[in-house]
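Sample intake sheet
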Amino acid sequence: MFGIFSGIRFLSRWIYRGIVVAILLILVALVARDPFLQSLTEKRIRDCTGLEARMKSMDVALFDQRATLHDLRIYNTADFGGGVMLDISELHFELDPEALRKGELHFKLLRLDVAELNIVINQQGVSNFQSLRDFRETRRAKAAGPLDDLIDPSLEFTGIDMLNLSVTRFAKTDLSRSGPPELITIDTRNAVYQRIRTRDDLLPQLNPAIVREAAGFLHESWFGASPK
């Protein structure tokens, strides 16, 4: 009889220990989740652009389809000086989960704070954004099927309900000439654009003109020219 009780006590202690270990593992997973997703996102940016990417932190709410990237910097290759190509202080987005279940990419909110965008012209007269576009076109040509991209290509973009855009400055560097970069200070804060369904819904609204031109330039570098 005492042997049975002793066995039960032994088993119960190990069950208790197992529960404690399981709880600790869950807590560790929750704490490590965001750093893991941050590292995965940085790697995905590198794979899809050929450019080094670093961010300070990343907060993800998977069940709410929300994420915030803090201090994301994408760097030029050595051919373009190796400095920062794009410095984003904050990128926050909230997706429509119902649309996502239907295979649609629909943003309820997209907040973007661009600290600096650097256009660099190399010794051959090619810009860093043209080089990025060429890299992506090469990836498309080599892909056996749909391009494995930052955003799932199977998702159909259906719009942005609210875009909050801040832009601080642009810079342009020509490596064929010596001297500091040309700086254009914009300092547009929290400009709000609503009900964006296509590229052409947004670009005409952007001000000043340099922001509009840069947005079109970025779009063509990333996605190619829009169809006529």
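Comment: The chain has one domain: 2-223. Confidence is low (pLDDT under 50) at residues 1-5, 20-32.
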